[in-house]
Amino acid sequence: MRAVPIIALYALEEALRRRIFHVVLVLTALYLALYWLGADTAFEEVQQFEGGLPVEEKELTGGTLFGLSMFGTLFLGAVLAAFLTLGVVRGDAERGLLQPLVVRPIGRNALLVGRFLGAAAVCVPYVFFVFTACALITRAAGGWWPDQFVRPGAELAAGVLVIAVLGLLGSVFLSATANGIAIFMVFGAGLVAGLLGQIGEALNSDTLQTVAERTSWALPFEALYQDALYRITSESRGFTGLAIQLGPFGGSQAAGSNLHLWVAAYFAVALSLTLAAFSRKDL
Amino acid sequence: MPPALAVHDVAKRYGRIEALKGVDLTVESGELVGLLGPNGAGKSTLVKIACGLIRASRGRAEICGAPAGSPSARAALGYLAELFRFPGWYSAGEVLRLHQRLVASDGGQSERDDLLELVGLSEAHRVRVDAMSKGMQQRLGIAQALVGSPQVLLLDEPTSALDPAGRRTVRALLEELRRRNIGVLLNSHLLSEIELVCDRVVILSHGAVVAAGTPAELSRPRGVEIETDRGIQHFENSGRDEVPALVENLIAEGQRVYGVRVLATSLEEEYLQAVGGDEA
After folding, report:
1. In this structure, are B27 and B13 located in the same domain?
2. Which residue out of A104, A279, A280 would a mutagenesis test of the B interface target, given it has the greatest number of B Cβ atoms within 10 Å?
3. Which domain holds residue B231?
4. CA of B176 to nearest chain A CA: how many angstroms apart?
5. Does any domain span residue B26?
6. pLDDT in tens, B183-195
7. Is the ipTM beyond the 0.95 threshold?
8. Which residues of chain A lie closer than 8 angstroms to B54, CB-CB?
9. Distance (Å, whole) CA A131 – CA A126
10. What is the 3-state secondary structure of B85-128?
11. What is the pLDDT of residues A8-18, one digit of tens each?
């Protein structure tokens, strides 16, 4: 495992020196600017209804906007994680980048763990940066701040790491393009599960809610996202709390402490499968 | 002392396709062995098994006595893949530095400078891979394979993208490696290169060794050609040992002898015969 930090540094350099990262930075700046404009306008518009609705406008607006921004943050983090992991094994082997590294006396496990840590070193700070920036923008625009801050941010980052490890697993079996498509389909499936849950809750359908819950645990980035959503407005009560929960990108669900154990186990199994598959792969 | 590379009865099967059917091959320290064969003969598969990139279905490969793919085998090995690429954003110096870290080489800057000079890239230390020609990248690949002073070098088509000057540089480099007592397995389609530099040649066809030996052992005598004042005369059944008697007879007959050539089949002819005329 001597080589893990060497490979992690190599992966980090790769991520930071590729053009795609610069594109991500520009798009992120654009996203934050648009979010600022949207948040500013939304808070201004809502002030006109003051006293006319049975909800606390600031809390409803802030919670909904920030929940929306968390979806954007998760999506951007997922895009970054996918791009950093989708070609790590088969993609790099097809391009001839992998073989010169694999023949070195470092071990295949060290290579994969290093690549994962390199991707994590980019994705986690990125998610925290966008998450914090959105929270600060929401506060500047309307004076709203989430009920919990660190834990929802950490859950979004953990969700992105789950996507990264799934990308790594897929990269052992699929070409870079196929793996990229697969990652986004999995991400989309998680999103659909969240929406099904909301529909199920609105219709009071146990079946839909069960399907949604099981799917979101099978794709735990979605369960983490739902728990993070719950935590940003965990102290909202009454009609305001209900309105936030049913908001356009709501779907918030308190997951309980088992979620973190489940995510840790899920992560360990996915990483072990990846290492086992890579160790037997002919290059 | 174990050989630099020893391959015993190695077979590899991809589903129904038998890429290798029990190959034996040895490369001693300081020996240059050329691996020849038509496309699909199993050359690259054999080299990849020796590197630990793919697993043999049967048999074993050893690098300096250690099983192929084991950490000690990898530590003794340098490898240039047929299809390889380095990250475009790295400079030549950065590529070598990365590989120095991976093999825990303490050669530092002086090793990097030496290697780049050895492959004729001493001016390219700061040149990014993106800005290099294919030939420069191939030379950098050879330099990368030599990081950490390996005892065995496996070169898969190392001259395919090189111009004649580049090939000459690689030939000189191979001679230098022989002097340093490094065992080299050279997989190439360029028969003339192999003939010029290799101590031994192994010809693979359809996953099996069909001929092996020194270039001289592989070639067959084709007679003697003598140029006299009456023209060029061909003596088909004669060899080197008969040359003095032949010349003596011709002079006795009053002919003036200008030149003598002992004829032998070329490696290319032997190769084509060994592989049954398959396309090289």
Report:
1. yes
2. A104
3. 221-264
4. 23
5. yes
6. 999 998 888 888 8
7. no
8. 282-283
9. 8
10. CCCCCCEHHHHHHHHHHHCCCCCHHHHHHHHHHHCCCCCCCCCE
11. 999 988 888 87
